[in-house]
Structures are given as structure tokens and as C-alpha cells.
Amino acid sequence: MPQPMDIFALVFSLAIILLTLTFISRRRGDGSAKLPPGSYGWPIVGETIDFLFRRPDNFVTDRMRKYSPEIFKTKILGEKTAVLCGPKGHKFLFSNEQKYFTTFRPHPMQHIFRSYQNKAPPPPPESQRSDESKMIRKPGFFKPEALMRYLPKMDLITQQQIQSHCAGKNAIEVYPLAKTLTLSLACHFFLGIENPERISRLVKHFDDVSVGMHSMMLNFPGTVFYRANQAAAAIRKELITVVREKKQEMASGEHQMLDILSHLIVLSDANGKSCDEAEIADKIMGLLTAGYSTVATAITFVMKYIGLSSEIYEKVRAEQMEIAGSKKAGETLEWEDISKMKYSWNVVLETLRLVPPLQGTFREVVTEFTYAGYTIPKGWKVYWTVSTTNMNPEYFKNPEKFNPSRFDEDEAAPPFASVPFGGGPRTCPGKEYARLAILAFIHNVVNKYKWEVVDPNEKVEGDMMPEPRKGLPIRLYPH
Predict the structure, then answer these.
(1) Residue 58 in 3-state DSSP?
(2) Which residues on adjacent β-strands are paired with residue 150?
(3) How much helix, strand and coil, in percent to the nearest 5, is found in the chain?
(4) Which of 19, 105, 442, 458 has the fewest CB atoms lying closer than 10 Å?
(5) In whole angstroms, how large is the CA radius of gyration of the chain?
(6) Is 103 within 8 Å of 133 (Cβ atoms)?
(7) H helices then E strands: how many in the chain?
């Protein structure tokens, strides 16, 4: 029978071997380069748990204080990652997108949006990832001239949704309204669906997908990642039906290609190969998720902050009533009206600073580079996040205070301090779409209602995707 000391020696030896192997693997992977300060965390999981389950700004700012305010290394979601911090880090990344970086989707996201395949595929080559991005940008769907044509319909859909959810009611929950509205808008814009209720029935599935994109890849019943994959399968099934219906409509010869789905159906790659139905469905699912969750979150918290301040409400309403007063009965919003909503947009920007719907994104390093005296090897990932600047008093005076006027020209933060939509050639392509959707909602809701936030201290849940625990209940007071 083994003696206690023998068991202790065996366990101790195994521990030493494990630590040695971990050390060797790290040394081999990093070479002799001068890497940024930081920690890879635990073997295998790295610092992923801390990254996903702490407030993102705390995860980042704690490490900026501990290691460097300019750059630090970590290991999250299975990847060795350098986090570039502050306006200088943002500028460097956005200015060198084509030189050092390519797009990178975290592994959970890759799996969810490509899970129609039998197994999770390896990341596509750089050229393919670039082509996928260009698919959406090339036709110009997100350019002002295209969105200009869509704005009247966006305005009408917003009016209908507000009427449907609010008419005759003394109180509502904002978040469910915002989610239904933004998904309806996205379905019309991306799919050309005139009865978006069929997709709106899938709101819960889109919620599960949104959360699962930033989760640990534990794929068994009861986990966030498992629910996300089940939800993606349900959405994909419905979208494949939509794709087939759209093909039939296009075959009739009477269809106008005014939506992104129609474009994807006829699109082919450099080799002349068209996307199959499942692939089209996954691309559209990604667009719908992006155009739904972030915009809904922004609208919800805009309503919260406007409702908490009668002064801000009156300023917003005065601006919107001036626009409404210049229009004839039944006339919808026009592009020129949006450009007049300067204070309202400042309110949106301040909301995005305090409650960012998107914390940041990843890039993959395609060419080794040096930043702040440290080397970032090829194959590493780079993470940029608004958390390095949004609550920093160096860039925003009294950062805890909600102050839309800080975005006036004479009080503006330094360049690259406020980057809610990213920057450079990979600026969020849906930035203008989001701006129109949010401002059209503000215009219509303040013209009809004043409101009071029921619980100003309602808990905000979800670290990567914030949402109010109770859905943000408000009391409505019609004008």
C-alpha cells in the first residue's frame, strides 16, 4: 500500500511536470520577442472566466493599472491577445487595419454562425474573411443615399410599433418594445419582409444567440453556448424558408433587389460559386443579430437617461418638435431632419459611453509589429475596447455623470477617445443605420409621450451585453 509520503511525492512530481510543460509551451510559442506585460492566467482557460463574468471595464482598467496604461497581454477565449489601450491604441489599430490586422471572430461566434456544417471549420483564410466583409459593404446598402430611401419606411414602422405597444397603456417595459422594433426594422431592411412578425416570434432565440457569442464553448444542455446553438438552428431553419421564398419571388421577374438578402442570393465569389442556402441564412443571421441587439440596447438606455432628467427631456423634445412642426400631416422623416437632431444625437453618444452595447472587437495579427516598445507576434489576437477610455476622467470630465453637452465641439474629448462604432476602414458598416433607427425612435416617442422611469436603480445584467433586469418599466404620460 502506498505511503502518504509516496502519494505526496507523486502529486508533487506531476504538478512540477505540468508547470514545466506549461512554461515550455509558452516559451516556444512566444520565442525571444519582448512581449507586453501581463498574464496568460490559468492553463487552457487563461483569463476567459474573468473576462466574461466581470464588468469589462474592470477587467481592462485593473490590468492597465497593474501592467501598463498602453498595452497588456492576456489569454481569452483560447487566444493569446494583446489589448491596445487608450486613444493612442485606438488610433494605431484603426490606422493600420490593412497593414497589420485582419478581422477575427471569437471561436464561439465562428461556431454559432457556421454551425450548419458538420463540425466547426478552421478559420477561413484572410482573403476569404476580407471578401465576406466586402459582400455587405460593396453594394452600398449602408451608404447615406441607400439609407435615405429607407428612412420613410423606418419612420412608419417605428410609429406602428410605438402605437402597438403604448396606445392606451399607463405603463410599459421599454426593452421588449425596443427588441421587437429593431428586429422588425432589421427584417425589412435585410430581408425585405413586409410581415416581420414571423421573425419577431424568434426574439428569444436572437437573445440566446447574442449572449452565446461571448461565452465559454461548453456545448451540453443547460449551458449558455448550448442554448445559443439551439437558437441558431431554429433561426436558420426559418431563414432558409425565407431564402427559398425570396428565390421564387425573384424568379417571377417582378422583384426589385432592394434588400441585402436578394443581393446575397445572386452574389458569387471570385470562382463564380454562389452561396448555398444555409450559408446565406448564417450570413443574414449574423446581420440580424448585429442590427438587433446593439440598437435595442441603445434605445432602451436612451429612454432611461432621458426619463431620469426632465431638463434633458425638454431639450430633446424642443428639438424634435421643431422638426415635427416643419412637416405636413402624415409626412415622414427625411435625411435633412436627421441632420438637425444634434442634441438628441449627443444624448445617444453619452448613453453609448456609459452603457456601451458593444464592448469591443478582435483582430488577428497578420504581420508582426511593435507597439509601445513591445512586439506582437503574427497569429496573436488584438482586442480593442471602449472600456479603456469611456470612464477615464483624463478624457471625460466627471465620467460618472450623464452629460450630453460634453459632446459639443468646445467640450469634445480627444480624437479616438469616443469610438462606439470603431474606426478606420472597418468602422461598423451599420453606424448610419443605427443612427437613423435610434433617432427615428426618439423623434416619434417624445412627440407622443413623456415618461417616468419606475426604478431608477434597476440592476443592469449581462457584462458583455447589458440589459435591464426588469426590462426598464416606465410610466407613460401622453401629450
Answers:
(1) helix
(2) none
(3) 55, 10, 35
(4) 19
(5) 24
(6) yes
(7) 18, 12
Count of C-beta atoms within a 10 Å radius of residue 137: 13
What's the 3-state SS for the chain? Answer: CCCHHHHHHHHHHHHHHHHHHHHHHHHHHHCCCCCCCECCCECCCECHHHHHHCCHHHHHHHHHHHCCCCEEEEEECCEEEEEECHHHHHHHHHHCHHHHEEEECCHHHHHHCCCCCCCCCCCCCHHHHHHHHHHHHCCCCCCHHHHHHHHHHHHHHHHHHHHHHHCCCCEEEHHHHHHHHHHHHHHHHHHCCCCCHHHHCCHHHHHHHHHHCCCCCCCCCCCHHHHHHHHHHHHHHHHHHHHHHHHHHHHCCCCCCCCHHHHHHHCECCCCCECCHHHHHHHHHHHHHHHHHHHHHHHHHHHHHHHCCHHHHHHHHHHHHHHHHCCCCCCCCCHHHHHCCHHHHHHHHHHHHHCCCCCEEEEEECCCEEECCEEECCCCEEEEEHHHCCCCCCCCCCCCCCCHHHHCHHHCCCCCCCCCCCCHHHCCCCHHHHHHHHHHHHHHHHHHEEEEECCCCCCEECCCCCEECCCCEEEEEEC
Q: Which residues fall within 8 angstroms of residue 197, CB to CB, at 6 or more apart? A: 184
H or E element in which residue 360 lies: strand 360-365
**Degrees to nearest 5, angle at CA 57 with 50 and 211:** 60
Which residue carries 440580424 as its cell? Answer: 288
Q: Cα–Cα–Cα angle for 316, 317, 321, nearest 5°?
A: 125
Using CA atoms, how far apart are residues 123 and 291, in angstroms rounded to an integer? 24
Global pTM?
0.87
Q: What is the mean pLDDT of the chain?
A: 86
Cell of 427: 468602422
Confidence of residue 101 (pLDDT cuts 50, 70, 90): very high
C-alpha cell at 145: 443615399
Contact 225, 219 (CB under 8 A): yes
pLDDT tens-digit profile of 24-80? 444 445 556 799 999 999 998 999 999 988 887 889 999 999 999 999 999 999 999
Cell of 31: 520565442
H-assigned helices in 253-276: 260-266
Give the Cα separation of 239 and 247 in Å (integer): 12
Structure confidence at residue 319 (pLDDT): 98
How far apart are alpha carbons 72 and 83 in whole angstroms? 6
